[in-house]
Amino acid sequence: MSVFHLIAPSGYCINQEAAARGVAFLEQAGHRVENQGVIRRRAQRFAGSDDCRLADLQALAELSESERIVLAVRGGYGASRLLERLDFAALAARQQRNPLLICGHSDFTVIQLGLLAAGDVITFSGPMLAGNFGAPEMNDFTWRHFWQALTAPRFTLQWESDAAPCEAQGKVWGGNLAMLASLIGTPWLPDIQDGILVVEDINEHPFRVERMLLQLHHAGILSRQRAIILGSFTAAKPNDYDCGYDLDAAIALLRERISVPIVTGLAFGHEQETVTLPLGAWGELAHDGKQARLTLSGHPVLNNVEKNHSAG
């Protein structure tokens, strides 16, 4: 059994039914879910006032029990409002003593990158309570990859991709592209040299994806990486006006502009089927022109849980 400690640093969970379903699913799988009161909390569009949501995060520094998974309820917007008041140093010190396994994605990316910048704290970019564990049917791929990342000190992801053959090693980092771009020029964007940058997004037209990637390029961030991995870009659909321009065209442009390898096709992001990535872990990427392999290591893991997990 694992203990899931819920936090809600972003938007109000409009789909209360999904959140309840997520809690029930985790409990039926034999886990304990604590701090459930944050699910129902609301202030305007947010999951409570800024003070309440900030307290959720700050309280993590005082959690004493080990073997605990911290799980974001959902994304949306709101975490950016907390950055300048959050005591990242206290959280980083707690993680260095006895790391919590902190998991979420989307809007939560700014907190994850802030922790990485402040104290090299590794967190997990992966499923959240409402959108993933609260789906009408839990995706077995997502469930298995979640536990793989949280229990295996070293594991490998493998997927098909049509990128050119390449090899790279470095710190794996990134998350949601829009949130990463929003941190450029702030203290909360980690300065990663020779890393492997992994990004994804949702509801962004291909030209917006291109514009954000070009922003990272113009800021000198992309050229400092060993490789770039593109996850899923859900609902990045062109329209009639685009006249043939699409996400593939945007990627082709980026490949013309930079010499860093760009590998596509990783199941990572806002889809029901997604891997879980330890942001800040060591990555070893190899691509033979047809298939990519990313081996991750150096991240904290749970020690006292059964590792054979199935969503069935």
From TrEMBL:
EC number: 3.4.17.13
GO molecular function ontology, one term from the record: muramoyltetrapeptide carboxypeptidase activity
Alphabetized UniProt keyword annotations: Carboxypeptidase, Hydrolase, Protease, Serine protease
Short name of any one Pfam family annotated for the protein: Peptidase_S66C
SUPFAM superfamilies: Class I glutamine amidotransferase-like, LD-carboxypeptidase A C-terminal domain-like
UniProt keyword Transferase, yes or no: no
Enzyme class: hydrolase
Record domain LD-carboxypeptidase N-terminal: where: 6-126
Annotated PANTHER family: MURAMOYLTETRAPEPTIDE CARBOXYPEPTIDASE (PTHR30237), MUREIN TETRAPEPTIDE CARBOXYPEPTIDASE (PTHR30237:SF2)
Family: Belongs to the peptidase S66 family.
Protein name: Muramoyltetrapeptide carboxypeptidase
Species of provenance: Franconibacter daqui
Lineage of origin: Bacteria, Pseudomonadati, Pseudomonadota, Gammaproteobacteria, Enterobacterales
